[in-house]
Amino acid sequence: MNDMPKKWILAIDPGSDKVGFAVVNYDLSHGEIGVVYLAQLHRLFKRMCDVPPEAAPQAVVIGNGTAAAAVCRLYNSLEIDIRVQFAEEKNTTYKARARYFQDHPPTGFWRLVPIGLQMPPCPVDDYAALLIGEKYLTENKLVEQVAAESGKP
């Protein structure tokens, strides 16, 4: 059995009020996702990044949109020694809505309403962060195949 921890990144979808985050593994599976207020973001960074090196993310990937500079300044003020990367986040909010409905299909009457006319009942900043992380790993050719590793000692 492989006791090596999975390699992962912390993906951030910065907003002026809410910030989406996602733990994205190098095999494109994901761990924790969620939304925090900008004022509480420092706690998230401390919990996820101020840990022993073997448990830490390989990078913090921040979407280059609305509040990216503010989020980066906050992260840098914590003096955590994990590199920050920026990623394009164009159309991620729109795509996040579709991903949300893929994971949570409408039920009842709502099945009859086209998805494009529906709004998720909660913020989807976490799904936007997930998409940012997946896109970053894919575009930088960092995705690791699980099936190829499972048969090796």
What's the SSE blueprint?
Blueprint: E1 8-13, E2 18-25, E3 30-37, H1 41-49, E4 60-63, H2 68-77, E5 84-87, H3 92-103, H4 125-139, H5 146-150
Parallel strand pairs: 1-4, 4-5
Antiparallel strand pairs: 1-2, 2-3
CATH topology: Nucleotidyltransferase, domain 5
Strand order of the largest sheet: 3-2-1-4-5
Oligomer: single chain
Listing every helix as H and every strand as E from the N terminus to the C terminus, the arrangement reads EEEHEHEHHH
Which terms summarize this structure?
153 residues; alpha/beta; Nucleotidyltransferase, domain 5; 5 strands; disordered C terminus
Summarize the structure.
With 153 residues, this protein is of the alpha/beta class.
Commentary on this structure:
This protein has a single domain (about 10-145), classed as YqgF/RNase H-like domain (Nucleotidyltransferase, domain 5, 2-Layer Sandwich), CATH 3.30.420.140. The model is unreliable at about 145-153 (pLDDT under 50). The termini are close together. The chain is α/β, with parallel strands linked by helices and about 150 residues long. It has 5 helices and 5 strands. The protein is globular and about 50 Å long.
